[in-house]
Amino acid sequence: MTEIITHSPEETIALGERIGKKLKGGDVIAYIGGLGCGKTTITRGISQGLGLGDEVSSPTFALVNEYRGQKLSLIHFDMYRILSPEDLETTGFFDYMADDAVLAIEWSENISDELPDNAITISFERIDDNTRKIIINGDERFDDTLD
What is the pTM for the complete model shown? Predict the structure, then answer.
């Protein structure tokens, strides 16, 4: 487990970039945290770390946004309105699990039974307008994320 405090959106993006540089195809990131806690912000950094740029937006209305790269792609889900296995199936979720993609899942608690056992969990706690406590669980690759 790694616990990090960020004090601005820029620090959260920088953390995401460090995480993104350590990801590999097939990784699933399960975000846990409420509205406005930094899930899309950290995803912007992860996209940068994967070499995909920073043009990341919340998938709230689309349910899934795809950011395609030459080696790896980032598939960004919003599961807020997913309430059943049937709903999940309509997102194409299982079709995206591949060795050339990283999945980042907002509101992952809504599909917790469907997540792979090796999912990387990133939990967010909003301390104030800019400060976030971010906890990374599930993979020793991120134990030195502060370095």
Answer: 0.91
The residue written with tokens 């395609």 in the block is 68
Rounded Cα distance, 33 and 82, in Å: 16
CA distance 68 to 82: 24
d(CA 100, CA 97): 8
Determine the topology of domain 2-136 in CATH. Answer: Rossmann fold (3.40.50)
Asked if 104 and 75 count as a contact pair (C-beta separation under 8 A), the reply is yes
Domain ranges of the chain: 2-136
- 2 neighbors 136 (Cβ within 8 angstroms): yes
Q: What is the pLDDT of residues 25-51, one digit of tens each?
A: 999 999 999 988 999 999 999 999 999
Give the DSSP H or E segment for 15.
Answer: helix 9-20
